[in-house]
Amino acid sequence: MRLLTAATVLMMLFAGVGMVRAYEGGGGMSLGARPSVRSLGAGETGLAETNDALAFTANAALLTWLPGPAIGAGHSDLVDGIPASAISVRAAIPLGPVVKVPGAGETGRRFGVGFSLDHGGVELSRGTDWGWNQLSLGAAYRITPYASAGLMGKYLFSNSDLEGSAVTAAGLDIGAAVEMSPAVRLALSVRNMLGFTRWEDGEDESPPLAADLGAALGLPYGTAGRVVYTFSQGAPGRLGAGIDAPVAGTGLGLRAGYVHHFGDYSRGVITAGAGYAYGGFQVDYAVNLDDDLALGTTHHFSLGYIFP
Length: 308
Known about the structure:
Layout: H1 2-22, H2 37-41, E1 70-77, E2 84-101, E3 106-125, E4 128-144, E5 147-160, E6 167-181, E7 184-199, E8 204-205, E9 210-218, E10 224-232, E11 235-247, E12 252-261, E13 267-278, E14 281-289, E15 297-306
Antiparallel strand pairs: 1-2, 1-15, 2-3, 3-4, 4-5, 5-6, 6-7, 7-8, 7-9, 9-10, 10-11, 11-12, 12-13, 13-14, 14-15
């Protein structure tokens, strides 16, 4: 069963990457929901992380791997030195019969649903603002004990004091996650397979198609290593890698990562974070040390709860 599942997922991986590389669409808004704060501390690598209850916006397939219903909220600075921030509210519910992964000691559910509401704003200049709201709705199905697939629908609308800059947009993502072994999990997300971007002046674009390929690796002492590579139509690739290490017996977790942006303006971003879990509650913090000419140093916080 594992070999059949692996072969199916590998075909999906190559098909998804091939679609992105061959796509000839436009360059509209990316329609990306905010990453979870836990993943931001580890190089923005939450694509295959089933222990992060708020990471499902990166890959809807993760919704079937949650141990229970989860809610959470987060706040992020977007650009250092500029009034620009975003907040998010998320909820996820695994449904249906319990599904156990043979030999891995993990459980999940046959179905999963979730929603995310993201709101952000940027003060462009004195008295001029640009803000947006994005609603994301996801659903997932556990195909086998080792693999799941999911869909994420997204709708965004913005407003601004600048004439002609208001926009509405929608997109559809598809994701997959597979347990290759108790220590290796692979994941794929193809973003904006369908969608539109419509500007206030009537101009229409297609959202840029993108594919994320990721892996989560079980390391000694409960540490998890993760890596994600992003292909994006009309934009350079991005590679993220990170680790998430628990401090034994304390409920604390420490994270570190690195994100490399390829292209003419190649740059690296160092990330770090920490979290504390107690009785279902999870508090997380992350800092991203970007180039001062890009986003600079930004800080991110979140609070979540997983129901028993």
